[in-house]
Design a protein that fits this description.
Layout (H helix, E strand, L loop, with lengths): L2 H4 L7 H13 L8 H8 L3 H13 L3 E3 L5 E3 L16 H16 L2 E8 L2 E8 L14 E3 L4 H8 L13 E4 L6 E9 L5 E10 H4 L2 H21 L5
Helix pairs in contact: 2-3, 2-4, 3-4, 5-8
Length: about 230
């Protein structure tokens, strides 16, 4: 067996992945670049570069403005570290929200502050026939919705009075959507993000159902926060 056969070229999709990574590394956050510029910088033909850019945009790793210029998208924040450990927050919370989604049947997600917006860095879907559809990289306003309100209220860290900061929204962003969200803090009281369960306003209008979601959400928040506590 030759060296080439056991190298990256032998792996299905390896060439496509390499080209996509080259393109991602060529993108910038400034005024953006034209397709021809990116193709030239990555030694790709324009058709290949255009196809890969569409894939990157589908997951919000790239965005295109009205002048047909491409630049890095908000989902690149998913790749950044939280600053207090080697693992990014998305990798830490993903197993927790997957279990939360299975147990509740609702969409579980985790949002972090992204400028004046909130960025979804992790998501898992429940088993409801009708539910809330999100994807990693989606950006939403902080002016409306439970998750946005949590990020606004806790932007300066955990309040000293120990107030209950869990928030509920019914039809704020969309009449059919509802959510309950809670802040997640690290051991120093710094806000890491907002953990949320979202679904239909019809289900969340039930007091008993909503209370059960709040209990399960609080348990999940506690589990994530314990991961960020110093090891004894």
């Amino acid at each position: 067996m030759s060296t080439k056969e056991v190298g990256a070229e032998a792996l299905p999709g390896a060439n496509t992945l390499e080209r996509g990574l080259r393109l991602l590394m060529a993108l910038r956050k400034d005024e953006g670049q034209k397709l021809s510029d990116l193709a030239r910088a990555t030694a790709l033909d324009k058709a290949t570069a255009s196809r890969l850019l569409r894939s990157l945009m589908r997951y919000s790793f790239a965005v295109k403005d009205d002048n047909d210029r491409y630049r890095l998208g908000p989902a690149t924040a998913v790749l950044e570290s939280t600053g207090d450990g080697s693992q990014g927050i998305a990798a830490v919370v993903q197993p927790v929200i997957e279990r939360l989604a299975r147990e509740t049947g609702e969409t579980a997600s985790f949002f972090v502050q992204h400028g004046s917006l909130r960025l979804c860095v992790a998501v898992a879907f429940g088993n409801r026939a009708v539910g809330h559809t999100l994807k990693v990289g989606d950006v939403l306003p902080t002016e409306r919705g439970a998750g946005g309100r949590v990020l606004r209220l806790c932007s300066n860290g955990r309040p000293e009075d120990g107030a209950d900061l869990m928030q509920t929204s019914l039809g704020e962003r969309d009449p059919e959507l509802a959510a309950v969200a809670s802040p997640v803090f690290n051991a120093r009281g710094k806000l890491l993000g907002a953990l949320s369960l979202s679904g239909t306003s019809t289900r969340y209008a039930s007091t008993d159902y909503l209370q059960d979601l709040k209990v399960r959400l609080a348990e999940a928040v506690g589990e994530v926060e314990r991961m960020f506590m110093p090891h004894q």
